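Please check this.
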Amino acid sequence: MKAFVINKYGKGALEFADVAAPDVGSNDVLIEVYAAGLNLLDSKIKTGEFKLMLPYRLPLILGHDVAGIVIKAGKNVRKFKVGDQVYSRPADYHIGTFAEYIAVNEKDVALKPKNISMNQAASIPLVALTAWQALVERADLKKGQKVFIQAGSGGVGTIAIQLAKHLGAVVATTASAKSFELLKNLGADLLIDYKTNYFEHMLKDYDAVLNSQDQKTLEKSLNVLKPQGKAISISGPPTPEFAREMGLPWYFKIIMSLLSFGIRRKAQKKHVDFSFLFMRAEGKQLQEIAALIEAGIIRPTVDRVFAFEQTNEALQYVESGRAKGKVVIEVKSGK
């Protein structure tokens, strides 16, 4: 089969190559890939930035989002059958959606929402699971609470705003003024132009912050929280708790303790909670998200769709930071 492969870490292009078709385990479904979503995580793995946390062996097929059709089911698979239209964020160490086929454990798969295309469905899994695990699991966001979602026009932001509004929260977000109309339509209540305003001067007594920016922005975000508020960061720094969750060796716990010491101490002094979130694959949550999409509560935001052969150009576009919502590659047309 054809796939885009990393042969060595760095900033060079992915190699378009013929590779062996994936083995299908007894708990796996083999998915014919119709579309794959791109994420900054793909770029960070490609350059080697994440090789300490995710020590992949090379060569490696990239890709963390998929929508497609089940063409084979392992002997223990009970939830899906051949012909099902599905979508998924494959688990770490089992990624590889920039390919014509991928085998995924059925627990990480959900039926594709019926009211959206394959391209739209491929834009959803990683960012929607991130938003769900941040706002529902970590923040336990309730009706009437206030949440600050940074970078509202990004992939995570566009979904998180809609999910937060569904949960009944008041939503503030940052973006450039040209994205305001989009974000207002998604439900954002307070729009802050990051080019001309300082969010830390405009926001106060918030219950939660979803941080996706740098350390400096994270530190400023602590100031907008009320006591016992929650700062959830998806951009670091990683914590010792994260090392334990990932089952990393003991020395990683020490490294991550040092990396996050400063922000954890500042959060403690302000009587707020800080945690680092590295989202996990979860088919059950994807099925709940699919129900929200079918009900019209969450709408995918796709900026551009590239042809499969243009995967390198698509990844460069993601890296440029210009995308509003998600970028997708169409591997096979027709659905």
The mean pLDDT is 96.
